[in-house]
Every structure is written in structure tokens, then in C-alpha cells.
Automatic annotation (TrEMBL):
One BP annotation, GO: pseudouridine synthesis
Domain of life the protein comes from: Archaea
Listed name of the protein: H/ACA RNA-protein complex component Gar1
Lineage: Archaea, Methanobacteriati, Methanobacteriota, Methanomada group, Methanobacteria
Gene3D superfamilies for this protein: Probable tRNA pseudouridine synthase domain
Organism: Methanobrevibacter curvatus
Signal peptide limits: none
């Protein structure tokens, strides 16, 4: 699995989300990994300036929030950037007679 560098940890918010700073805008809902390549959470929100956005990450319940230090590196998986299908997917079309 190939991963891209996402950014660095800033802090844990009052709502329990991990806040990070990045140089790129990642896809919403992508999975986030730590230095040890362990899956730690999922992107909840991207906000702030477009050149260096802030990223709010929902951590998984199994992850210890206190294990993150300021300036820890985070990574995003290239495989988690799948496109969402829109429209008539899964619906049967009626045949015209």
C-alpha cells in the first residue's frame, strides 16, 4: 500500500478530534495513518486556507488520543481516494416496448 505524507499533528480539539496541518488538500473521508503505518482515523473536515489547510480527523475508538505528540507525522493512503458513484447506480432501468 502506497501512502502520501499528509502533514503534522497540531493538537487534540475539545471535541476529541485530532487537528493537523497539511500542504495539500486531502479527500474527505480518507483514512489516516501514523508513523508506524497503523490506521488511526478518518478525515472529518478540511478547513482554513487552501494552500495550508487544517484537517480535523475522527480517531478510531481503539486509538489512544494521548499517544499523539505535536509535530508527529501523518499519512494518507492512495487507495482510500476512491471516487463516489452518483446517479442511477444500483437501480434497474425500465425497458421501453
Amino acid at each position: 500500500m502506497s501512502m502520501n505524507y499528509l502533514g503534522t499533528v497540531l493538537h487534540i480539539s475539545n471535541s476529541g478530534k485530532l487537528i493537523a496541518r497539511s500542504n495539500t488538500t486531502p479527500p474527505s473521508g480518507a483514512f489516516i495513518y501514523n508513523n508506524d503505518k497503523n490506521k488511526v482515523g478518518k478525515i472529518a473536515n478540511v478547513f482554513g486556507p487552501t494552500k495550508k489547510p487544517f484537517i480535523a480527523i475522527n480517531l478510531f475508538k481503539s486509538v489512544d488520543k494521548n499517544s499523539f505528540l505535536s509535530a508527529d507525522d501523518l499519512y494518507v493512503s492512495l487507495n482510500s481516494q476512491k471516487r463516489k458513484r452518483r446517479g442511477q447506480h444500483g437501480k434497474k432501468k425500465k425497458k421501453k416496448n
